[in-house]
Specification:
about 180 residues; mainly alpha; about 70% helix; elongated
Length: about 180
């Protein structure tokens, strides 16, 4: 492998490392929100375990979207916010099913529903769902913008040029004849 390819590979690995660290920072705070709301609901209300967990997950999803959009993936394409939010919610809902499916199986399938057991399976569910969410968010939701060299020439030509008539991309006015 030549030096240029090694440098490119090293740069991509460093970029992925930074992305994972930012994703982890937002996710770590989201984890605290999720577990905090879950335990608050579990101990302060009469909600069933999985219902309290679903509510906590939804609160964490809202918190995480703001963190991912404005911190982790702030440099990513922002042109299709409706599409982005729709995909985010779709993949978040899949993560919610993964996360709370594990808790449901432990609680109702195995009868493990003490506060400690519920927190352990809630945490395990969050871990499995987080791996899925990381892959899906970076692949489908917060897409990488193309490098400047990859921008097609047609897109470059469609960009308005700076300057007056006769400048590249600007029409030249013809005199009106009477």
């Amino acid at each position: 492998m030549n030096a240029s390819k090694r440098a490119d590979l090293f740069g991509r690995v460093r970029g992925l490392g930074r992305e994972i660290a930012k994703f982890g920072a937002v996710g770590g705070l989201g984890l605290l929100v999720n577990l905090g709301v879950f335990n608050l609901l579990r101990h302060a209300t009469d909600l069933q375990v999985v219902r309290a967990s679903v509510i906590a997950t939804v609160v964490a999803i809202a918190f995480n979207y703001v963190g991912f959009r404005y911190f982790t993936y702030r440099d990513r394409d922002k042109s299709g916010r409706t599409r982005e939010l729709t995909l985010f919610l779709l993949f978040s809902a899949a993560g919610l099913v993964i996360e709370n499916g594990l808790l449901y199986a432990a609680t109702y399938g195995l009868g493990w529903d003490t506060p400690l057991q519920s927190n352990v399976f809630k945490f395990l569910g969050i871990g499995v769902a987080t791996a899925f969410r990381f892959w899906s968010y970076r692949t489908w939701v917060f897409k990488t913008m193309p490098a400047p060299a990859e921008v097609p020439a047609a897109a470059e030509a469609a960009r308005p040029a700076v300057g007056g008539p006769g400048a590249p991309g600007q029409p030249v006015r013809q005199p009106v004849r009477h």
